[in-house]
């Protein structure tokens, strides 16, 4: 992990008793193993072939269309000066349109 990183680390929530570097390392190892298990289960499906596996997009970890995670402290483009709704709705809206698109609409 990068020094000073304060964002979300998958699988680190319940790892306790060690320092941040060890906790994040262990969490990322668990996360990687969990993804490998998903790939094994996918290959066991009927009608599976290698072409399906190649077409899977491995770059997306989280579901799109949802707001950001609670307690996320990173930058959200387009989120500045947004108010009046829940954090999840605001981040979803902020990520859905660029600032330029919002200015054209308003």
Automatic annotation (TrEMBL):
InterPro entries the UniProt entry points to: CMI2A-C-like_dom
Segments passing through the bilayer: none
Record's subcellular location: Cytoplasm, Cytoskeleton, Cilium axoneme
Domain Ciliary microtubule inner protein 2A-C-like stretches: 68-97
Keywords: Cell projection, Cytoplasm, Cytoskeleton
GO cellular component: axoneme; microtubule cytoskeleton
Coiled coil: none
Main function: Microtubule inner protein (MIP) part of the dynein-decorated doublet microtubules (DMTs) in cilia axoneme, which is required for motile cilia beating.
Similarity field: Belongs to the CIMIP2 family.
Protein's name in the database: Ciliary microtubule inner protein 2B
